Amino acid sequence: MKILENVNFAKLTTIKTGGKIPKVIFCEQLEELKMLQKKLGYIKILGSGSNIIPPDSDIDFPIVKLTGIFNSYSITPIGTDKFRVVAGGGTYISKIATTAAKNGIGGLEPFATFPASTGGAVFMNAGCYGTEIKDLLEWVEFLIESGETVRLEVDNLSFSYRKSIFHTKSYPIVKACFKVYKDPKAYEKINIYKMYRNNTKAYSQGPSAGSIFKNPSKDLSAGYLLDSCNLRGFKIGGAKIAEEHCNVIINTGDAKAKDIILLMQEMWRRVYERFGIKLEPEVELLGINKDIWKAFVQDEGKYSYSCI
Ligand SMILES: Cc1cc2nc3c(=O)[nH]c(=O)nc-3n(C[C@H](O)[C@H](O)[C@H](O)COP(=O)(O)OP(=O)(O)OC[C@H]3O[C@@H](n4cnc5c(N)ncnc54)[C@H](O)[C@@H]3O)c2cc1C
Fold it and tell me: 79 and 182 share a domain?
């Protein structure tokens, strides 16, 4: 186990904002994780930090990063054309998808196009190009309060759009098993998905946390609603709505969490006033950001709430 003190959140999140973390604990073994859980009671794990908006103020709890055995995976054949991938909670899915595809194994290709750890993707039921992580999952193993690991099959994990059982039970995800299959064209498919991704120019404009709000329904995208409110390029401080995609906020260099939260409030308010729809954040607002957002929504966007 390694511990770093006073780490800038900006170094651990893709949007590159946030205050200081008192301790970042790098856990390499299951026994270490069990010991930590026993000691701390509650563990906040950070995957690749690609869905998090941390506060500007320093947080008062440690952050755990999974390394060592949690960064490994195995691919085992089942019969002639099916395989099982068992991945540690800290492993980048893009890495697994790419290696599998190079070996003619397909299924995970859409996940080669964005930064997500296995734990983060399972937690979020991440998805793109018509596939959600739950579609490929067989089971997930996680740590419960008693220090035991529990394995649950996919149907028992309450998956829905960008949601899982882990939103209500804060259990560290230790490993996950994906069902994949033989596909000689898998690597070609990755390149096609990467081409689609590169066409979303917003992501190449600067650091972001992906989509800010969830789509209200399958047929109605948050991006469309926000675009209809003429929000392209709208800027507060160092945070800017991407010209190319209104549901993406770019850190133009010196954005604070405060700028991002105020911008999100402006986005929410405009959509609510014009369409009567209350957008729900897809990004996770951490620490005080969460309380600020709750108060703002409770007041139906009448007041702006800024970080202290
Ligand atoms: C450029 C870009 C493009 C993106 N495109 C997409 C997309 O197409 N589709 C999509 O769904 N998302 C997308 N995202 C958002 C993001 O990548 C996903 O939500 C991803 O699943 C988050 O994974 P992470 O490892 O970064 O998790 P983090 O952001 O680090 O954490 C997210 C949540 O998961 C929890 N968590 C992480 N690991 C564990 C663990 N081992 N055990 C328990 N809890 C854990 C964290 O505590 C936190 O609550 C994009 C983001 C970016 C920056």
Answer: yes
Task: Please report whether residue 307 resides in a domain.
Answer: no
- Domain carrying residue 218: 201-298
CA distance 159 to 157: 6
Residue with the nearest Cα to atom 37 of ligand 1?
120
- Any idea what the Cα angle at residue 287 is, between residues 92 and 156, rounded to 5°? 50
Cβ(283) to ligand 1 under 6 A? no
Examine the domain organization and report whether 220 and 171 are in the same domain: no
The predicted-structure confidence for 23-39, as pLDDT tens digits, reads as follows: 999 999 999 999 999 99
The answer to whether residues 39 and 118 belong to one domain is no
Q: Is 115 in the pocket of ligand 1 (CB under 6 A)?
A: yes
Residues 115 and 50: beta-carbon distance below 8 Å: yes
Q: Is the CB of 18 inside a 6 Å radius of any atom of ligand 1?
A: no
The total of other beta-carbon atoms located within 10 Å of residue 169's CB is: 11
Residue that terminates a domain, selected from 192, 227, 254 = 192
Cα 289 to chain centroid, rounded: 16
Domain tally, the chain: 3
Active site residues: 162, 211, 282
Q: Are residues 83 and 172 in the same domain?
A: yes
d(CA 42, CA 99) in angstroms, rounded, equals 34
Q: Residue 110 falls within a domain, yes or no?
A: yes
Same domain? 225 vs 124:
no
pLDDT of residue 199: 84
pLDDT of residue 308: 54
What is the value of pTM for the model shown? 0.97
